[in-house]
Amino acid sequence: MKKVLITGVAGFIGSHLLDFLLDETDWYISGVDNLSTGRMANIEQRLDHERFDFKEMSLFELHSLKEYDLVFHLAALPRIQPSFELVSEHIRENLMAAVHLIEIMIGEGHFPRLINSSSSAVYGTPETIPTSESERISCLSPYAFQKFETEQYLELLSTRYPLDYVNLRYFNPYGPRSFNPDNKFNAYSSVVGIFLYRAKNGQSLQVTGDGAQKRDFVHVRDLARANYLAAIHPEKLNTAFNIGHSSTMSIIELAKRISEDITFIDKREGEAEITYADVSKARKVLGWEPLSSLKSYLAESLQKNDSHA
Q1: Which of 2, 124, 289, 308 could hold 69 in an S-S bridge, CB 3.0 to 4.6 Å?
Q2: Which residue in the list 28, 68, 123, 143 is annotated as catalytic?
């Protein structure tokens, strides 16, 4: 039986990965989270599972990875705008924490496969649409730069040490638990989750700029399956994969599908005009396909909102 570690297990994506692995595998799973952005409510129903143990701790308190066959690294401060303001904090959590994991591996001489959660933000506003992994890197925010730096450290250090890693460049995840109203950075959570929450609570949907910016939205369950497929691939990959739906929807179209009560606020700098994934590499190498539809998810979520009104 494989023993695996999920960092950031109580977060939006981490908790869904936990659900997927407990439901679909016989693996023993350890999870760590400092609960700075994750929350116990996301995993509390799993705490008594015989194949899951959880520790509330910082990654910097980890000193050994010897017992693990796989490490899924999801812990991060996944916020673009705050990364401009709280620079050193984001460097610590988004870069140095990942480097700490690598240093543990080097120190122990034990190299479990590392499935690293990266971001489509590394492309900035891409020149080629749809965007493949060969697109030039053009980071528009410290957050994006930290994600790319992590990828670069993995690539560079793998020339000296037998690192075994996969970088998954997520596009725009959505799904249950994506929005935490108690988080101080909630305004930068998944826009799908934010809009659904505001509509449910009778609040106006706030669209930045004119809303023409387009996003490739991918369901969190599809992300979890991509992590799993990267983990079980029989060969060492040491490369990056785009994980998106390979379609786009503008923010204004998204808003109009949810509510007629829309207001416009100033555009935020540091964010791409469009994200649109070419996922042919993930399809060919990992055998991964996005299965969920945003339009179906919105229809189901709005129906639930109406039934609970």
Answers
A1: 2
A2: 143
